[in-house]
């Protein structure tokens, strides 16, 4: 079986706070650009480009691999992957593209890319969980 690859984003308070801070820095870049008078100066353009690159890195650095009932949640630039077996977790559910489960006394919710979410739904349908 060829593992499916995709992206994930945590939907807990830490994940939401990181996106809120990203939005704050993006708005700050636009405010700096506005204060300068919408001129094409180097500082506002560089700050906007840096914030957009950071946002792109926030998305692509979180990779998910799915092989059968095993989900590998990894972060690029870090060598470790968190391995989650759907067989071992009792109360997991997938609604749309959101996978939620409880592990190590912590409720986790992840927004998955479409292809990974569809394969998990297929696993759920074939195994009756």
TrEMBL record:
Organism of this sequence: Leuconostoc pseudomesenteroides
Segments crossing the lipid bilayer: 14-36, 42-60
InterPro entries on file: EbsA-like
Protein name in UniProt: EbsA family protein
Pfam families per the UniProt record, alphabetical: EbsA
Keyword line: Membrane, Transmembrane, Transmembrane helix
